[in-house]
Amino acid sequence: MQLRYSFRLYPDPGQQRALARAFGCARVVFNDAVRAREEAKAAKQPFPRAAELSKRLITEAKQTVERSWLGEVSAVVLQQSLRDVESAYRNFFASLKGTRKGPKVGVPRFKSRKDARQSIRFTANARWSVIGGGRLNLLKIGAVKVRWSRTLPTTPTSVTVVKDAAGRYFASFVIDTDPHADAAAMPDTGQRVGIDLGLTHFAVLSDGTKTDSPRFLRRAEKKLKKAQRDLSRKQKGSRNREKARLKVARAHAQVADARREFHHQLSTKLIRDNQAIGVEDLAVKGLARTRLAKSVHDAGWASFVTMLEYKAQRYGRTLIKIGRFEPTSQVCSTCGVKDGPKPLDVREWTCAACGTVHDRDINAAINVKSAAGLAVSACGAPVRPGAIPAQREETGSHGFPTEPRAA
Description:
The chain is of the alpha+beta class. It contains 11 helices and 14 strands. The chain has helices at residues 13-42, 50-59, 75-97, 179-185, 216-219, 221-232, 239-273, 284-287, 293-299, 301-315, 360-371, and strands at residues 2-10, 118-123, 129-130, 136-138, 142-147, 158-163, 169-176, 192-197, 201-205, 210-212, 276-280, 318-322, 348-350, 357-359. It is elongated.
């Protein structure tokens, strides 16, 4: 499988100007290609092919006075910008036909020089390389200083240079991983676990382990409010406003980086220690429309589950998602009796049928493990509570649950 390894770049002022020039040229070629497609559509003509666009928008455009500055950057960067247009239209038409997984995507739009994120891509034929001193040598940009936080396992196939909203530069390398090396790095453990994701505790495991929620956004709210207030008081278009905008962007970047690092560490630990993992398919979009919206976004459950998915695939683990309407917080994990919904402030409850006292989150994690078919008896057979007949008022179609599934 292919993975991305990102490293921080520290270009000098001259290299920053060269990168800004490359970002601008790639953006112009992208917009010209989108405009050519839209004009062909308005004229009811076939879309121009990639080879035709490359000849007209790059090769011939360099010979004109209006686009002569396109020759100041690597031609590979411009060609990759055209590939991005092709990919964007391909995804758009696949989304219209319903053959593309995930949410619907719209028609490609024009890029702006004020976009928060700028990027260019260098492939192998762009003759980029890592030279002495650990610097990244890029065509028509120079040898850029890189902070190598880890070693690349194999030779990358391409590198993308990204400038984010906080003004930071990154080099993102595409790596083809070795499945044999990945399998050797994570030997079989035989352990199985269910995970209940929540807000008070970010993750509660079926074995009783609880991981507190760091609440990165909540802890940084005071700093973010002050930075946002300072930004709102600056005159639009002024240099002081740009400085204030960078301050806000950097504060948000610190929160996002801390959350991502927490997700990586926890997901790697779970994948390393367990052979099979069960987790709920949470309705994050639905929960984000409730009064818990800020806390739900702060937790970042979707990105955490995505990390579990690709790490499980990489290291040969099993990840099973159970349905979001599975009543994990309502069923007794001991006898299987459904005790009904409970308010969020009820953290412990006693089963009316068997008298077992349950911790709400641990009981839910055990039910997640059983629903995923990961619980086994002493003889090795799968164990899960038996089906309980629905009460009369519970029949009919299901809508959104009355309480967050992660509670």
